[in-house]
Amino acid sequence: MKDIELQLKAELLSPSGKIPKQGVENWLKDAKEIIAEAQDVENKVRNGRYLCRAWNGKLVDEKTREMKEFLDKDPNASETLAMDGPSGGLPLPTSELVGEEAARKEIWACLMLEEVKKIGVWGMGSVGKTTIMKHIHNDLLKEQIFERVIWVTISMEFNVLKVQHDIASALKLKKDWPKEGDKLRRAAILSEMLKRAGKHVLILDDVWDEVSLEEVGIPEPSGSNGCKLVLTTRSERVCKYMGCTVIKVKPLSEQQALTLFLSKVGPNIVQNQTLMPILRLVVKECAGLPLTIVVIAGTLKGEEDPLIWKHALRELKERIEKLEGVEAKVIERLKFSFDHLKDEKVKYCFLHCALYPEDYEIKKDELIECWIEEGFIDDMGTRQEMKDKGHVILKKLEDNCLLENGSSGFVKMHDAVRDMALSITRMNP
């Protein structure tokens, strides 16, 4: 037992920030109790408390057998007895902030206030909530104000086991995370891990409904556990239900929207003063939503024909004039860019990306292989030529801002763009 105790202490003192594996601490505690009992029996025998020699021998044999059986169950000292502690986190790929600085400063100020434990960031879809929080996530890592910053995407289809798994993965617990077990046991393990995670921020992105922190295994944020919780949502009601300090992300002002549009539409358009009046009207139809602005600017990038701009303006107006509901109008504006993809095969390639889970980083090479297997890329003689064509299609989708650059060699689809793609596949199964 002494060897195991020493090994565990050595691992816990290592600079990698390890914590005891589940069960190791309990084993050591039980071992100490059994040893104490054995010593008590030994003292009583030595002092003649048990007068019958046969009884003495039987008692000693029984205690010896009990100790042997217990020690046979000791943790394997050839393996590590501690598991990796939570990771501080890695920077997230993100786009530039334009006009969202006021909301960003307000969120940051709340994070720095000791009395604020839970923050709810809300606003309509594609208004920039996730982008703001990604910047804050990365700034928190850079400033090292908190020991750990954890990012988990929730999404519309809330699944407790998936959320538990994602938090465990963010804490680097994958290899020690139980492959089996009910939600309650996982929640207990996760709760204990988060309590030991030190001063940390947990960001739950894209929350659609109330989340039971207890059910997931997230300790209620308090001064004693050092946790702060931030959630992004399209619902102010969710923020209030979960007891958050509420911060609303508003659409961009007219000037901010114009600045963002001009930064994406190409230098030749910026210098073309004859297009400015119609361009401003197109920007107005984007309703101050950063994603919509970026996607429509990408669709019209480099286009200098005034007639095409007039047609685009008329089309955008017609698309939304009969629609009710903010979310429906967002999807229809984004669909404008999809409908302007001239090649049907490129459209199929784009829609295929919506099959991946929300916020999923898609490996470019694997995605292109899937397109080839599905027949979305025409036979061009050699496999390499088909792969090259796949990269051209990817570039087209990225230029139109229908796909975002993720980590090196990966792409992602914004959740609002994915909603648009799924709405198309539902209408045309």
From TrEMBL:
It comes from the Eukaryota. Residues 104-268 form the NB-ARC domain. Residues 355-421 form the Disease resistance protein winged helix domain. InterPro entries: Apaf_helical, NB-ARC, P-loop_NTPase, Plant_NBS-LRR, WHD_DRP. GO terms for biological process: defense response. Keywords: ATP-binding, Nucleotide-binding, Plant defense, Repeat. One of its GO terms (molecular function) is ADP binding. This is Probable disease resistance protein At5g43730. It comes from Gossypium hirsutum (Upland cotton).
